Amino acid sequence: MTKIAPSILSADFANLLYDVNEVKAAGADYLHFDVMDGCFVPNISIGLPVLKSLRKATDMFLDVHLMIDRPHRYVKDFCQAGADLVVFHLEADQPQHIFEAIETVKSCGKKVGLSLKPKTPAKAIIPYLDKLDLVLIMTVEPGFGGQSFMHEQLDKIAEMKELINKTNPSCELQVDGGVDSETAKLCKDAGANVLVAGSAVFGKKDRAAAIDAIRNA
Ligand code: DX5
Ligand code: ZN
C-alpha cells in the first residue's frame, strides 16, 4: 500500500501539534520534516530544536529531509534529536562524505535515505543504493512548498524503480514536490511507494479527505 508523508512545511507552526495530530488521526504513515539551511537551497526552515520538541510530543515516524550542505556534519545530531529516517542529498558533498554520513545514520540505528534533485540522473544513485532504506526523487527544485509537479521526472522515477528492483528490492521509493490527488497516480504508476505532500494536505480543510484522495489516487 502507498504510504503518505505529509510535509509540515505547509503546516501552521504556531499550532504544529494540532496539525500533526490531525494527520496522524487521518492515517498518515510518516511525518515529513524539511530542514533547509539557506545554502544548499535558497530558503531557511526548521531544525534540531523543533525536531526535539516534536519527538517528545508524537510517536509518529519522523522522516527528516535534510536540504543542507555537507550533511555528514549534522546527521548524528538529527538521529539523536529523534529522527526515525534521515534523508540527505547526494549532491550536497563529495562521495566520501556521503558514504560517511550513511554509515553514521546506520550506526545510530536509524533508517537512511538519499535524495536526488531534478537535474541529477537516476544512475547517480548506483554507488550508494545497496546501503539505503529509501531513495527520494524530487519532483520540484527543493526549497519551497507549493510548486508545480515536474512531469519530466516520471521517467526517472520508473528508471529508479528498475534499479531498486535489481539491487535492493526492499528499498522504498519516495517522491516529494507537487504531489496531489492527480500527480499521485502518476507517481504510483511509475513505481513510487511513499508520497510526500505538503500543500495538498495542510492546505486543505479536511486533511483526512486529502490524505485519502492521495492514497487512493
Ligand atoms: C520542498 C520540500 C517539500 C515540500 C513539498 O523543497 O522538500 O517536502 O514541503 O511541498 P508541496 O507538497 O506543497 O510541493
Ligand atoms: Zn521534503
Describe the structure.
With 217 residues, the chain is of the alpha/beta class. The protein has a single domain (3-215), classed as Aldolase class I (TIM Barrel, Alpha-Beta Barrel), CATH 3.20.20. 34% of the residues lie in helices and 20% in strands. The chain has eight helices and eight strands, in the order βαβαβαβαββαβαβαα. The protein has helices spanning 16-25, 48-57, 75-80, 95-107, 154-167, 183-190, 199-202, 207-215; strands spanning 3-6, 30-36, 61-67, 85-89, 111-116, 134-138, 172-176, 194-197. An eight-stranded parallel beta sheet has the order 1-8-7-6-5-4-3-2. Helix 5 packs parallel to helix 6. The longest helix is centred in the last third of the chain and has 14 residues, at 154-167. It is globular and about 45 Å long. The chain starts with a strand and ends with a helix. 45% of the residues are buried. The mean pLDDT is 98. The structure holds D-xylitol-5-phosphate (DX5) and zinc ion.
List keywords for this structure.
217 residues; alpha/beta; TIM Barrel; eight-stranded parallel β-sheet; 8 helices; 8 strands; 20% strand; binds D-xylitol-5-phosphate; binds zinc ion
In summary, what is this structure?
The protein is an alpha/beta fold and 217 residues long.
Summarize the SSE layout with pairings.
Elements: E1 3-6, H1 16-25, E2 30-36, H2 48-57, E3 61-67, H3 75-80, E4 85-89, H4 95-107, E5 111-116, E6 134-138, H5 154-167, E7 172-176, H6 183-190, E8 194-197, H7 199-202, H8 207-215
Parallel strand pairs: 1-8, 2-3, 3-4, 4-5, 5-6, 6-7, 7-8
Helix pairs in contact: 5-6
The protein binds D-xylitol-5-phosphate and zinc ion (ZN).
